[in-house]
Amino acid sequence: MAETTENDVMKIAIIGLANAGKTSIVKTVRKTYHIGQTIQSPKPTKSVQRTIFKIFGDNAIIWDYGGQDEYRAAYLEKPERFLSDIHYLFFVIDIQDPKSFDQSLNYFSDAYDFIHEHTPQLIVSIMFHKMDPKIAKTPEIKERVIKLKRKFGAILVNREVGYYETSVFDALSLLTSISLPILGDLPIYNKISVLFANYAIRNSVDYMNLTVDNLLELGKFRIYRKDQEFLEASMEFYKEFGNLEIDSKIRSYNFEGYRFIIVQGKSEEYDYTLNVAHPLSVGLEMPTEESLNQILREINDLFVEYHPLLN
Ligand SMILES: Nc1nc2c(ncn2[C@@H]2O[C@H](COP(=O)(O)OP(=O)(O)O)[C@@H](O)[C@H]2O)c(=O)[nH]1
Ligand SMILES: [Mg+2]
Prior knowledge:
Layout: E1 10-15, H1 22-33, E2 37-38, E3 48-55, E4 58-65, H2 69-77, H3 79-82, E5 88-94, H4 101-118, E6 123-129, H5 139-155, E7 161-165, H6 171-183, H7 187-202, E8 207-212, E9 216-222, H8 227-241, E10 250-255, E11 258-267, E12 270-279, H9 289-306
């Protein structure tokens, strides 16, 4: 790695009260997508944990801000030291703990005021976290989300914000929440998603996505909200095949009523993974190798056209 100062690096901040779930989010993302190294801190009590990973060949760092009272006080007392140069702000709030909402909103408001003033081009995402699949649909939880959006909206005057419902029991919800703010506005994201929608309809595919550098989703189509099932299936796949080679080979296997197709390839300098899930119902034709090769070519053309993806 060439010498880089932290100022060159994309800085992603994960902020929230203690116990909101910040560290679990980072750990889940790392474990699921086999990425990143946490920079070991000399003192175990250090307030900020940093995890470095690659995004399109460049370094990015996730800063996980400890949420204990004394740490929060320190960030807000010396904001220029802790809260400067943040490109992406993810604020995590525990949707299962309504008693913490007021304190959480106050913390957000204080931190946001400083960050926003110093970094006008900041991208803000709010994660309503611990939305575990078994409670996410309950009226009580939905009501909490609606009320919180109104309160965050009042703080985030004239600012676009992304709201995400996340849970460590739905790792893809985390993938999407991290990918969309960073990549969702890129023209290539939309192009790939449109390509997938067309492909999926022609080939009876229920789900497909493309991830880059093992972590970031660069396009998606899904017919049902079955992310968790698809993720579990792809974990089975990795168990079976270990770390796949980046060889553009089409690999597939059947699992729980689906045929999963995975291709790992490289285009320009980007390592990508294409995931496709096709239901094994009688009478549905499998995607042919020819059609898969065709879509790989189209993905490759988009990488060439939009290279470099960032900036
Ligand atoms: N039910 C549920 N518990 C979670 C989730 N994410 C984290 N937790 C739990 O919440 C507690 C606090 O998590 P932690 O990541 O340490 O929070 P942090 O203080 O914000 O870093 C731990 O007991 C986690 O296991 C989630 O999505 N759902
Ligand atoms: Mg933590």
